[in-house]
Design a protein that fits this description.
- The protein is built from 34 helices and two strands.
- The chain has 661 residues and is an all-alpha fold.
- Among the domains are: 12-96, no CATH class; 549-661.
- The protein starts with 26 loop residues before the first strand and ends with a helix.
């Protein structure tokens, strides 16, 4: 019985034992021990019992009352008790983290002691956050003393209905992947299936933890994940259409880990099957982006001269993405074509594998790429980006108001994130989002002085908080790149000088943005009539050659040497010659494949005076430098390959090789 004679003394939602019984019948005794009960509701009961029993305590006697009077008194007391119960439940909700942390620590300690085959290293570390688990940072992962038992425990936790235990189980699997991959491989299919199911979990904290877990599985298990790609890549791509920004970013990281570590051919198949024809615009964009990464990693020779399956898969996919409704997706489709078009079999492969209805458009796109280059990645319009970012499923009945609803949802998510009782997003993620908002607003400000301040702030952050900049480098430099050719010459010059200082700090961390960075640096600045801007741009290009892996620069430098005009074309051709001298010994095949196409272009179009039609300026000296750099590395093989070109190309090459630079 409850405190006031009611059989149900505590609601189910707040089930704590608070027992202080009242005798049955029409009479009850007030000679009771009225010490405060020990449960959650102790304070409320303690405050209100005296108001009903003070007089009786003084008399210390048993009173008899009528049944009806007693029923009324009991009903009144029951109602007042329920009111206090509700208030205390609210207090319990607000302070649950402190109580759960204390009881959870005690519970975990006793479990660790009681379990003979336990996993003490992990449980000791996690005991203080048992009831409010977070996604562990990679640096926090630790090995288990008994990994076989840890794996069994992880699968048990994932099967539990409690979302907190699911996150704990996912953290277990991440530790196993990092330190005990051979044990995890024994049950990889079962484990992967369990993790994939949690990616679909409706609770965002669990879903995000599962995405991070898949990222670690790709990172540590590498090609052992090949057999699991169909299910994992499909579920990750579908998550790319979610409104939760943090989940989308983690999906992107997981897919990058997949591309970097599994067999490229399997990655191609899983990406195309998982997202090429998806109805959601964000899923198609994400698919195209990561398929482009695979193509860049594989190189054209392997795709177009290798097995039929690669060209048969990649070329039609690239053609389809190049005609997508999204500007960004079209860009990635064109980039795939751009990466492959220097291969001698490219045109023949287009005829063979591109559907006839798409072929004229694709040929026109390739022609444009050869004349103008790839250019910078475009951004979809704000309305399109809103639809891409926030629409969860296509055909939703509320699509007309989806942007507004999604914005409200995002606001609620941020509120939940900051609620310590449901904390699931690391604090540094929120700091990054706020930092990006501030720095990009400065870099895109209307007032040129604010833009300069933004550039100086970025340099300071690169020097003092490089991890923050590197972690958000694509978003930051997407705003910064426009300052490298700002219409205001003061901003333009400051941006170039700042870029020159940042390159030695960031080095190969610039690799994700190198294709957007180089056009912004060279396209206008190397043909600038402002001597200060020209000199600054030249210094930046030189710094890139010194501090960034030249293999990353090879393709963009080839593109600029082939398609730029005027002084910029001469400068980039000479820089390409320098790269050949440095890179050829490491990457002979790639160097020949990419640079020879540029050389044949220059030799084939150069007039007797040394100029190129429509290009302006004399290119003879720069072409001679490139020719001699290649001959120094390739020797007679260069002349042998020139023999397969039109006669005037070989003739021009021989003349330039005899020329004294």
């Amino acid at each position: 019985k409850g405190v006031f004679g009611s059989p149900n003394s505590a609601p189910a939602a707040c089930s704590q034992s608070v027992i202080s019984s009242v005798e049955n019948g029409d009479a009850f005794s007030t000679k009771q021990n009225i010490e405060p009960p020990s449960g959650i509701y102790g304070r409320a009961v303690q405050q209100n019992i005296p108001s009903y029993v003070d007089i009786e305590n003084e008399k210390d006697i048993k009173i008899s009352i009528s049944k009806s009077t007693y029923d009324k008194m009991r009903q009144k007391r029951k109602e007042e008790k329920e009111l206090f119960d509700i208030k205390d439940c609210e207090k319990k909700e607000q302070n649950s983290w402190e109580r759960m942390k204390t009881t959870g620590t005690e519970k975990k300690t006793s479990e660790s002691e009681a379990s003979p085959g336990g996993i003490p290293q992990y449980k000791e570390r996690m005991s203080s956050v048992t009831h409010s688990p977070e996604i562990m940072d990679t640096s926090e992962l630790r090995p288990f003393s008994k990994p076989e038992i840890a794996l069994t425990e992880a699968l048990r936790l994932l099967a539990d209905e409690d979302w907190e235990k699911k996150i704990e189980g996912l953290n277990f699997i991440r530790c196993l992947a990092a330190f005990h991959s051979e044990i995890l491989n024994t049950k990889l299919h079962e484990t992967n299936f369990a993790v994939v199911q949690e990616v679909k979990n409706l609770r965002s904290g669990v879903s995000r933890a599962a995405v991070v877990c898949l990222s670690d599985l790709f990172t540590y298990l590498k090609k052992n994940m090949d057999q699991e790609l169909d299910s994992t890549v499909k579920v990750l791509l579908h998550k790319a259409g979610e409104s939760n920004t943090f989940i989308r970013e983690d999906v992107d990281k997981a897919l990058r880990a997949m591309v970097s570590n599994v067999t490229p051919a399997r990655a191609v198949v899983s990406l195309i099957n998982g997202g090429q024809s998806h109805l959601h615009i964000a899923v198609r964009r994400c698919t195209a982006q990561h398929l482009t990464d695979v193509v860049e990693f594989m190189e054209p020779e392997r795709i177009l001269s290798g097995t039929k399956d690669m060209a048969d898969r990649i070329l039609p996919a690239a053609a389809k993405f190049a005609q997508d409704s999204s500007q960004e997706t079209r860009y990635y489709g064109r980039k795939m074509l751009f990466l492959m078009m220097c291969h001698p079999n490219f045109d023949k492969m287009l005829e063979k594998y591109i559907p006839s209805k798409d072929l004229p458009y694709i040929k026109e796109s390739v022609k444009s790429l050869r004349q103008k280059g790839l250019g910078e990645i475009p951004l979809d319009t704000p309305s399109a980006k809103g639809r891409r970012s926030h629409t969860g499923t296509v055909g939703n009945a509320r699509s007309s108001s989806v942007s507004r609803d999604a914005f409200d949802l995002a606001e609620r998510e941020v509120t939940e994130i900051r609620d310590i009782t449901r904390k699931s997003i690391p604090r540094n993620s929120l700091e990054s989002a706020e930092y990006i908002k501030v720095i990009t607003s400065l870099l895109n400000a209307k007032d040129f002085r604010d833009r300069i301040n933004g550039i100086k702030q970025l340099l300071s952050d690169t020097e003092n908080n490089q991890e923050l900049v590197v972690g958000n480098i694509v978003k930051i430099f997407d705003a910064f790149k426009s300052r490298l050719h700002d219409s205001n010459s003061k901003v333009n010059l400051v941006a170039l000088e700042t870029m020159h200082k940042m390159i030695p700090l960031l080095r190969d961390n610039l690799s994700p943005i190198i294709n957007m960075l180089i056009p912004a640096i060279v396209d206008n600045n190397l043909n600038s009539k402002n001597p200060g801007i020209y000199a600054a741009a030249t210094n930046v290009v030189q710094a890139l050659s010194q501090h960034v892996d030249n293999y990353l620069l090879l393709q963009p430098f080839c593109t600029k040497a082939q398609f730029l005009n005027g002084k910029a074309k001469q400068d980039m051709t000479e820089k390409l010659a320098d790269i050949v001298m440095e890179l050829y010994q490491r990457k002979p095949h790639a160097t020949e494949q990419k640079v020879l196409g540029v050389l044949w272009h220059l030799l084939g179009n150069m007039t007797n005076s040394g100029s190129l039609p429509g290009a302006g300026g004399n290119i003879r000296t720069a072409t001679a430098k490139l020719s001699k750099a290649l001959f120094a590395q390739m020797g007679q093989n260069l002349l042998n390959q020139a023999a397969s070109q039109p006669p005037h190309i070989k003739k021009n090459l021989e003349e330039l090789l005899d020329m004294t630079i």
